[in-house]
Amino acid sequence: MSAPEPFGARLRRAMDARGPLCVGIDPHASLLHDWGLDDDVAGLERFSRTTVEALADRVAVLKPQAAFFERFGSRGVAVLERTVTEARAAGALVIMDAKRGDIGSTMGAYAAAFLDADSPLFADALTVSPYLGFGALAPALQAAEASGAGLFVLALTSNPEGREVQRAVRDDGTTVAATMLRHLAEHNAGAEPLGSFGAVVGATLGDLSSFDLAVNGPLLAPGIGAQGATPADLPAVFGPAVRNVVPSVSRGVLRHGPDPSGLRDSAARFADEVRAALD
Ligand SMILES: O=c1ccn([C@@H]2O[C@H](COP(=O)(O)O)[C@@H](O)[C@H]2O)c(=O)[nH]1
């Protein structure tokens, strides 16, 4: 059997064809309410299916936030499984935003859940937390390589609280975030057209020129919309690495539902703004 095409190559093709925008599927209770849905499993299912049907044939990436599904227990997780399957079938790549991270032996079980192509929760990529040490992510890196999936490692998150951990200075004088970026660059070395191991770097963070963002992998950039960043901020935040940025917006698009055309128009506006900013 031939090796699966790596996530980085699939993502680059999707970004070239559709533009780099990622829309998050974050079924907040308040959004369910605004859409006229009950805050229950049926509401969750309707919300997710409407978003997938409106957007999966046009945006490069959809990013379900697992927490909003898990809050409904096993029935919510079943909706998450269907959401991923339907989004992928309709042509979008799916980043599972579950931010898993643990000691290596347990990380292997997370990898089996999200990165094994035979798992019901398999997605094209998974967000992971490296704060038990980057080395503890090894089982996820191996599983992703085997299945052609990707990882997005939390490096510089969009929230202000992340600073105290991520910008802490290590014994060798480098920051924790810079160390994570260096590990990613090592793992992506030589990959073409793009490595499969990306970083999460918030679009909210202002000038990041003190960090080497040239990791030869994608940079998932949440924070656009509800958290205050705009597509126009991207060049100043990411500098030359902006070509590898996957700008991500959730509530900024979702608040325009439940009408599918409202969701599509909003995503198209963000996509246009991203295109204008990157030109
Ligand atoms: O640094 C990070 C990492 C992940 N997120 C997630 O992205 C979305 C953002 O939602 P908005 O509605 O666009 O604010 C959400 O799922 C976060 O958990 C992030 O914001 N920052």
Automatic annotation (TrEMBL):
It holds the Pfam family OMPdecase. GO terms for molecular function: orotidine-5'-phosphate decarboxylase activity. It is an enzyme of class 4 (lyase). The active site is at 99 (proton donor). Residues 20-266 form the Orotidine 5'-phosphate decarboxylase domain. It catalyses: orotidine 5'-phosphate + H(+) = UMP + CO2. Pathway: Pyrimidine metabolism; UMP biosynthesis via de novo pathway; UMP from orotate: step 2/2. One of its GO terms (biological process) is 'de novo' pyrimidine nucleobase biosynthetic process. Keywords: Decarboxylase, Lyase, Pyrimidine biosynthesis. Its EC number is 4.1.1.23. Belongs to the OMP decarboxylase family. Type 2 subfamily. This is Orotidine 5'-phosphate decarboxylase.
